[in-house]
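Following up on my earlier message about zinc ion. Here are the inputs again, as you asked, copied directly from the submission form:
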Amino acid sequence: MGKDEAQRRIEELRILLRENSRKYYVENAPDMSDQEFDFLMHELEALEAAYPEFYSPDSPTQRVGSDLGSEFVKRAHRYPMLSLGNTYSISEVEEFAARADKLLESGFSYCCELKFDGTAICLTYTGGRLTRALTRGDGTMGDDVTRNALRISNIPHTLKGDFPEEFEIRGEILMPYASFEALNRERADEGEAPFANPRNAASGSLKLGDSEEVAKRGLWCTLYHIPAQSVPFDTHYEALSKAASWGLPVSEHIKLCNSIEEIRAFIDYWDVARRSLPYATDGIVIKINELSAQRSLGYTAKSPRWAVAYKFKAEQACTPLLSIDYQVGRTGAVTPVANLAPVQLGGTVVKRATLVNADQIAALDVRVGDSVYVEKGGEIIPKITGVNLSLRPADVLPPAFPALCPDCGTPLVKQEGEAKWFCPNQDGCPTQIKGRILHFMGRKAMNILAGEATVEQFYAASLVKTPSDLYKISKYQLMSLEGWQDKAAQRFLDSLEDSKKVPFERVLFALGIRFVGESTARDIALHFGSIDAIASASKKDLLQISDVGEVVAGSVYEYMHKDAHMEEIGKLRLIGLKFEVTGGSDSVSAALAGKTIVVSGNFSISRDAMKELIAAHGGKCASSVSGSTSFLLAGSKPGPEKLRKCDQLGIPVISEDEFSKLLPSSEKNEAVQELTLF
Ligand SMILES: [Zn+2]
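Thanks, got it. Here's what our run produced:
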């Protein structure tokens, strides 16, 4: 293929892939299968590797997967990202207007906007293309999240119309309620802790290491500020209208106001109307519209003098506390939940609210029989924020936090540094047993087709106590349970059989070791290669993994040193589950056997795929260079720290090309494809 032809094909593939991911993620109606998509992606990756002169930061290849890990490059903001002065009082908004009136000589107007409850973002477009996205960070430096921003459906990669050559625009990344609820449902299914509110979910999602996952989170962007220095406009309103004409997402709920009365009307309207918006807002922003007026008002050290944020009061209700339930979770944590006399709050009837933990109950001095204040704020689960002491009956006593597990009667324990009480009876507490099995079966774990109701049914029929029991269930036993038909039973048994092919890193996640989430499990699995290596690892060995800290290392170490756990792992291994990365049919060759390899930089395939490739050829990956490193496999832009260490220790550094020569040639491509497709 000639150079011109290659360039044409690269452009064509980029359009095809971009279009299809939009259809997939935005419209939920993909034209091609995942496999076709991956195949074209590989073709594009190969072409871009062969013709690096056609590199483009917004190519779909640059937006897939991630090699950033959880750390992002920090970059300086061109103009500091300040926060706005906040107020909850209309009279302070009036003072703001009076001050502007006094200081400004010529006439001016106000631009009123919604205040979105998300996480701040600063986008830079160069030549009409998104070239950078930074978080607020500390206001001076932000995290470079460009890769992830490119996966947010309503952020345009390219602009249309008469956009300036280069400019910055700022706004907010939000998670709409619908995405938030879907995400929390999914997390509950997987046994993961739900996000407390859409704002946390949005900022957590924006900072994910895996941009594939970001694309699935249903994030949404709204933009509201072009730093005045960067573009010549007369008014803020004009700048935003222009931005909208270039295809940028600007809120339609903007109003120009000329008096404090109009501002007040805007606030009153949205204090009610915001409840029907599909995303969270927490106030109104009032900006002086004329940019010349903004310039003459200037800034304080922390915030602009030409804008103020009026925050809505959190919705609050006062209602009697009827009783407190103590609920046990999958991990054994006990959470107090308040049962309230039903009360209207933010458009819904609230009957339950969280009391967080024992310390919180004590701090609020909440007693059953009290009239308590309940707030919704940005949170979905309401919380109790105080007690109306003037309504306290004479005879109420502080609640006694249970000493025994409400589920199994085991004395609760509290570890140092933790606010929650735990039931330590992991292997005998019904809620914990059921929770663990549900987690084991989860889609991101063993992907066994059954839900919570089925687990209840199995547990009630004494069929399962540990995950390995699932594999002993016969079709006859299933059919004797209520509601099971031949077809459903077969499907369940088939999914059990399929789960034996699930790779080790997901099996490790499925075990439900405390603090070991999906990506930590993958890191640990790929680092050690087998359950035996993990079981014999010291805490110090575990700490070698870059994202593993004391807490995770301690939890894994303890888990592996409990006989009951090792016995269960033994049973699962006999059943045929994978407990090694390289074992069985996954192993392609032993070309790298005994080698410890550190991987750094970008490659023609994702870094995870590279690690899997190494494992498939019998090699072991380590996260940092040490005396036992065999060589550093360096792609483009390897870490300078790692290179220096290699130099110091005399450890060879090899390129991707040299590396591929170490592998049996006929199998390399096949292996790469197989591994990246799965
Ligand atoms: Zn218990």
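One observation from looking it over: The chain is about 40% helix and 20% strand. Hope that helps, and feel free to reply on this thread.
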